[in-house]
Amino acid sequence: MRRGRSKSVREVTNFQQAPYGQKKNPFQPMSIFSEDEIEAIHQASLKVLCDTGMDIQSPRAVEILKREGAMIGSDGRRVRFDPDFVMEKISTTPSEFTLHGRHKGRHVHVGGQSVINTLVSSAPNVSDLDRGRILGNFEDYSNLIKLGEILNTVHALGGYPVEPCDLDVSERHLHAVSAAARLSTKPLFGYAIGSERMLDAIEIVRIGRGIDRETLLKEPSITTVVNANSPLVYDKALLEGAIEMAEHNQPVIYTPFTLAGAMAPITVAGALVQQNAESLAGLAFHQCVNPGAPAIYGSFTSNVDMKSGSPAFGTPEYTKATIASGQLARKYKIPLRASNANASNAPDEQSVYESQMSLWACMLGQVNFILHGHGWIEGGLCASYEKVILDAEMNQMMEAFLMPSLVNNDTLGVEAIAEVGPASHFFAAQQTLDRYETEHYNPMLSDWRNFESWRDAGSETASQRANKIWKQLLDDYKEPKLAPEVEEELSGFVDRRVSEGGAAPL
């Protein structure tokens, strides 16, 4: 189904984007805890790993850890980590690396002051103002990938923006990742659900970039997320996928899902101890597989509504935990991932102010990789077309905030003030005219009108304007075609794997 728009939509839609380009966060990161308090969290995490340990459900992963010197329990699953072992292993994690897109203009830098923003990922449902909330499907999956390609605030994919539930699960990854390779030039993602699916995704990305295997091993080109099953468990399938990624020198984002009071201690400090322990265990494992392979410290600590048990996001606790995670990740000199999260069931005011809390946490904590950056609602259960646009607006504002403000003889404006003098205005001042096109914020949703004209025209909401914008974007989208020989190789690989039955059930 083609999501077009009438001519009238273009006439009333005021859509502007700032130019594409990855931004750096030039500001000093905020500290929630003192250095002594961060050290206490660090030491407590190491104690948890040494005394309590982690359940590692993959025998293959256990053998790798045993080979490297970790302490294996009598049950063959409980693994305990000596503190010196952990620190020695994570020390080989690169503090910075390049994540490669289809061509040079789409490569992004990971780590340091660099910021990467992504689309929502892994939502089982999708919604828009026209249809309401429906089950995820391949058409909407593809449309959201297209929006991610055309939006300049999106730098990479962080997963399937919505799960294409209408595709057979054994073949889903083949069609989904190959579609992303065709529809997007930005760095791609595959799910670490067992070795087979992960290897297929890695091969699709290699083919889509038009590179050989030797080049792929040198150039990280795909990410995945491995979540801990908090508390203190790593799943077999995810670890099997992580092994393939590490062996191919591709980055894994090791991310505990620690909800204070439910899956972690109820205090922010206690939840951070568990998050840190689980993330360190994953990062150390990654280096056991392939020392020097890139990886990312994942932060996803929030709280729950203790009356209902429902997750809460974009809360003060989430914000504090994210900023504190920045302190921990910088202590280890490892890039940091967090999220633009909210718990609202609609692209409404709540979704925006909770996302603002999340995004400010990412800015203040100097997060490098923002997952779910565009379109997340309903605590991650739904991808919203309108929220994609609302988030793009917020992220564009954040990018403008990160731009440097120079102080010199020219910017101080003394000559402009003298030119204008008392009781006049600066609209026509030479300084204003020289900078009008380059120094003002480019709004995407701006629809300012005085009250009388606004009342006469009807009170259109931001979500209603966003509805028009995403339709316009999809209508304007042009597929970045693969080279014919690349398309032939990609189609041949997918067809062969489908004929083989795809991935075996786990």
Give an overview in words.
It comes from Candidatus Pseudothioglobus singularis PS1. It is an enzyme of class 2 (transferase). Belongs to the trimethylamine methyltransferase family. One of its GO terms (biological process) is methylation. This is Methyltransferase. There is one protein chain. By secondary structure, the chain is an alpha/beta fold. The chain has a domain at 9-29 and 93-401: Trimethylamine methyltransferase-like (TIM Barrel, Alpha-Beta Barrel). The chain is built from 18 helices and 21 strands. It has helices spanning 7-12, 35-52, 59-68, 83-90, 138-150, 172-183, 195-209, 213-218, 236-247, 268-289, 316-332, 349-364, 385-402, 414-420, 430-439, 451-457, 462-476, 484-499; strands at 23-24, 54-56, 71-72, 78-80, 96-99, 108-111, 114-117, 125-128, 132-135, 188-189, 222-228, 233-234, 252-256, 258-260, 295-298, 301-304, 311-312, 336-339, 369-371, 376-377, 382-384. The strands form 5 sheets. It has an 8-stranded mixed beta sheet with strand order 1-7-19-18-15-13-11-10. A 4-stranded mixed beta sheet has the order 3-4-2-12. β18 (336-339), α12 and β19 form a beta-alpha-beta unit. α4 packs across α10, α6 packs parallel to α7 and α7 runs antiparallel to α18. The two termini are 33 Å apart.
